[in-house]
Amino acid sequence: PDEQRAALASRRERALEAQGLLSHASTVEVLGREQVTPYLMNMSDDAHLAGCLLYYLYPGKVTAVGSAAGSAIPIAGLGIPPHLCSLVNRDNVRVSLHRSEWTQR
Q1: Phi, psi of 67 (to 5 degrees)
Q2: Which helix (H) or strand (E) holds 1?
Q3: Calpha distance 100→62 (Å, rounded)
Q4: Are 54 and 40 in contact (CB under 8 A)?
Q5: 32-86, pLDDT tens digit by residue?
Q6: CB-count exposure of residue 65 (10 Å: 0-12, 13-18, 19+)
Q7: Torsion 3-5-55-90 (CA) sign
Q8: Residues 51, 61: Cα–Cα separation, whole Å
Q9: Cβ contact 53:46 at 8 Å
Q10: Residue 97: is it exposed, middle or buried by C-beta count within 10 angstroms (0-12/13-18/19+)?
């Protein structure tokens, strides 16, 4: 049972990383508990799904959102452009949103 649990946890970690996500354990390693980094969290009517996905916005880094394979925050679905928008964490206080020209139509 413990080996099976560890194997499932490892598969979960790999699946999260493939989607550009960090698990809770990884966020503690990467950011530390005291860090005040802004993030986006998923919302859902299903209590089991709400709050499961965290996308951290790292200071000074452009975070791409869209359907493109290289997007830091991948969104799939009909009508979702490859580059929906970009988010920039200026200083852990201000976050800028930049829409692509396609989304401004």
Answers
A1: -90, -5
A2: none
A3: 13
A4: yes
A5: 544 688 888 888 898 877 887 888 888 889 999 999 998 999 998 999 999 999 9
A6: buried
A7: negative
A8: 23
A9: no
A10: exposed
27-60 burial code (b ≥16 CB/10 A, e <16): beeeeeeeeeebeeeeeeeeeeeeeebbbbbbee
Per-residue pLDDT for 95 more than 80? yes
Distances (CA, A) of 78 to 12, 43, 67, 85: 26, 20, 10, 16
Q: How many Å apart are CA 55 and CA 22, to the nearest integer?
A: 8
Structure token digits, residue 10? 């490892």
C-alpha span between 38 and 101 (Å, rounded): 25
Burial class (CB in 10 A: 0-12, 13-18, 19+), 66: buried
Measured from the Cβ of residue 64, the count of other Cβ atoms closer than 10 Å reads 18
